[in-house]
Amino acid sequence: MHPRNAIIMVISYGYLLNTAITKHVYISFIVLEVGICPMSFYCPKHFLFILHSTVGQGLQTSTYPGEVLFSIVIAILGLVLFALLIGKMQTYLQSMSVRLEEMRIQRRDSEQWMHHRLLPSELRERVRRYEQYKWLNTRGVDEDNLVRSLPKDLRRDIKRHLCLNLVRRVPLFANMDERLVDAICERLKPCLYTEKTYVVREGDPVNEMLFIIRGRLESITTDGGRSGFFNRGFLKEGDFCGEELLTWALDPNSAGNLPSSTRTVKALNLVEAFALEAEELKFVASQFRHLHSRQVQHTFRFYSQQWRTWASMFIQTAWRRYSRRKIIDKRRKDEAQEFYESDYYEQDNDDVSRALVPLPRIHTTSSTTCSTSGRTRPGFDTTIYATLSCC
Fold it and tell me: Transmembrane stretches, by residue range (predicted)?
């Protein structure tokens, strides 16, 4: 075959293939016998375009072999990447569907249980809100069990990475050594409190110490229900509550009974925190004697809500005593001044003050008439009253 005829034939077949691709015609089998090697790249190119048309590529190449090979490689890579993308999306959707199905099952079980126990609508709403917040924060992953299943060394490093900066924000642990902070971080457990949830009530036993990561809480005390006493404070990020537990843990003679809470702590919004349980804190206090130092106790008392309340109570009591004593002293001074002024006023206004004063008794044995205003009878002890003029 003449080379010119071969070129014309290939161009004709190329035109037919382009027309078939444009018109979406199905081509079962095409055989081309071309004597010139570079022209044989046309058929693979068009077949790959047919396969690659699902990816959305429309490469327009020339008749050069290099561009044709480059187009083939790009088409194959596009197909491979597209297949990987589809596989990843399918796996992700399957995993999400499994977790969503687990969440639906758990929610359905909780709804059935609440309906069976005839819980009021308010409690049901609180349960639903807690489950929703927990799902949004954890995405169905049990973080505690996941970390607990890891080796001890790896678990310590993960806890240190997650909790070190948060524990350092607490002024009580800001200046402590690394070993003590690591021991505390290793024993912290994440917890979540929804809005209007009571963390602890006044008088209830304290079973954990709470370090706040995010959120805002309200702390109230009535000093054991004492009449006329009310103290209110707010806790924010970096604060802590349940300090009665630390005092209990630092006391070597403390009994097994947990201390009672002196305050009522309530979450004002969504609160994330780390909790340190009583037994864990007791173990840390027994292993690290640094917690018993004066500096740590002074820092604890300075940032403790309980000690602040006591200090405010003592200041208020001392101020009331001082104010009461000052009022009494002022009243006494005013009364004394009024008495002196009234006495001086009476003496100044009266030119002559009259008073009846008793004179000495005069014993008479005979009838005697005195030149006074009184008259006597003989034989009687008579007391004579005289009018005296005073200057």
Answer: 25-48, 68-87
Longest CA–CA span in the chain (Å) reads 196
Tokens 């001044």 locate to: 337
3-class SS of residue 240: strand
Within 8 A by CB and 6+ apart from 366, the residues are 378
275: Cβ–Cβ under 8 A, 6 or more apart, which residues? 188, 189, 190, 191, 208, 209, 210, 211
- In this model, does residue 378 exceed pLDDT 50? no
The whole-angstrom separation of Cα 200 and Cα 220 is: 11
* 391 band by pLDDT with thresholds 50, 70 and 90: very low
Residues 6+ apart with CB under 8 A from 83: none
Q: Identify the CA nearest to 43 among candidates 12, 64, 17.
A: 17
Residues 213 and 272: their CA atoms lie apart, in Å, by: 5
Q: How far apart are CA 289 and CA 278, in angstroms?
A: 17
Q: Which residues contact 379 (CB under 8 A, 6 or more apart)?
A: 364, 365
Which of these, 154, 169, 150, 152, lies nearest to 213 by C-alpha position?
169
3-state secondary structure of 191: strand
pTM, two decimals, is 0.51
Beta partners for 276?
Answer: 209
Sorted by sequence, the CB contacts under 8 Å of residue 174 that are 6+ apart come out as 168
Name the CA dihedral angle for 26, 32, 36, 41, rounded to a multiple of 10 degrees.
30
Q: How many helices (H) and strands (E) does the chain have?
A: 11, 10
Q: Are 202 and 231 in contact (CB under 8 A)?
A: no
Q: What are phi and psi of 131, to 5 degrees?
A: -65, -40
The neighbour count for residue 322, using CB atoms within 10 Å, is 10
pLDDT band of residue 59 (cuts 50, 70, 90) is low
| Portions of the chain given CATH number 2.60.120.10 | 150-303
Q: Per-residue pLDDT averaged across 148-159, rounded?
A: 84
CATH level 3 topology of 150-303:
Jelly Rolls (2.60.120)
The CA-atom distances, in angstroms, between 29 and each of 32, 37, 52, 241, 296 are 10, 20, 18, 80, 87
| CA-wise closest residue to 212 among 183, 181, 191 | 191
